[in-house]
Amino acid sequence: MTQRLAPCPDSPNCVSSDAADPAHYAAPFTIILPAREAWPLVREAVKAIPRTEITGQTDTYLHAECRSMVFRFVDDLELELRAGEGIIAVRSASRKGYSDFGVNRRRVERLREALRSRGVVR
User: Fold this and answer.
1) Cys bridge to 25: 19, 68, 108, 120, which one at CB 3.0-4.6 A?
2) Minimal CA–CA distance to 104: which of 71, 76, 64, 69?
């Protein structure tokens, strides 16, 4: 069973590498390791994000819930390994509200940097 990333809503509180519009688009992670080596390192990097819990995972898909520090709002982080394309598609979105003040985009870029520093992505 292949899981696909959920589409972003019209509100500006979501970013996704599958989004067609620039406001919601975030580049996928380009893996530089073999997929079977990269995927466990991706899971480790997600587990290291503060207040984040992995709630579902397969060999190619990961879903995590990220809670804000003060109000404990939940954001959804999704990653999909697309080994044939050499990428990991990513989506981060707020469950509630309209604006996220850039939180989801920063989360994706911090994860990208964490994976870059581990030699997983370029």
Assistant:
1) 19
2) 76
Strands 52-57 and 74-82 come out as unpaired
CB 15 within 8 Å of CB 26? yes
| Measured CA distances, 96 to 11, 23, 45, 49, 100 (Å) | 10, 18, 25, 20, 9
- Residue 105 vs residues 32, 42, 50: alpha-carbon distances, Å: 22, 17, 16
pLDDT along the chain (122 residues), means of 10: 76 95 96 96 96 96 91 92 97 89 94 97 95
Closest CA to 7 of 74, 62, 89, 71: 89
